[in-house]
Amino acid sequence: MLKVLNESNGNRLAMRATDLLRDEDYEQTLIPKVESLLKEHGKLRFLLDCDEEFRGWAPAALWDDAKFGLKHSSDFEKIALVGAPLLAEWGARLANHLMDAEIETFDTGEFEKAWHWLNQ
Questions:
Q1: Which of 22, 34, 77, 87 is the most exposed place for a label (fewest CB within 10 A)?
Q2: 86-98 and 59-71 helices cross at what angle (nearest 10)?
Q3: pLDDT top residue among 120 and 88
Q4: For the segment 43-96, what is each residue's pLDDT rounded down to a tens digit?
Q5: How far is CA 78 from CA 31, 58, 74, 81, in A?
Q6: How far apart are CA 107 and CA 111, in angstroms?
C-alpha cells in the first residue's frame, strides 16, 4: 500500500510503502498524484519510505514501476529511497544511469536525513 505523507509540499512528494505494492497502488495513488504535481510544478522531488512491514512489489506492480520510470525518466530532480530492500537499491543504481534525477538510498529509520537531502 502507498500513502502520501504530510511532509509533501510543492514539488516535493513523500510516500510511505507498506506491505506489498500492487498494481492498484500505482494506478490509484502514485500515478495520479505524480501526474497532477507534474502539471502544477514541472519537475518533482520524490521520497519513498519503505516501512518495516514492506514486502516488495507484486509482479504487476514491478511492471508498472518499470513503465512509470521510463515514461517519467526526465521528470524528477531527486529521488530518495528509505529502507528499500536490496533489490530496490540495485534497481536505483541502474535507474541512476537511465534517469536524469539524482538518486540516493538511505537506511531504515533515516527518513529525516533523506528528507533533508531531498530539500537541498
A1: 87
A2: 20
A3: 120
A4: 999 999 999 999 988 988 888 888 887 788 899 999 999 998 765 655 556 555
A5: 17, 25, 10, 10
A6: 8
Distance between CA atoms of 17 and 19, rounded to whole angstroms?
7
Instruction: Write down all domains in the chain, each with its CATH number in brackets.
Output: 2-119 (3.30.750)
CB 47 within 8 A of CB 114: yes
Residue type, 45: R
- Count the residues in the chain: 120
Residue carrying C-alpha cell 527518513:
111
**Which of helix, strand or coil describes residue 79?**
strand
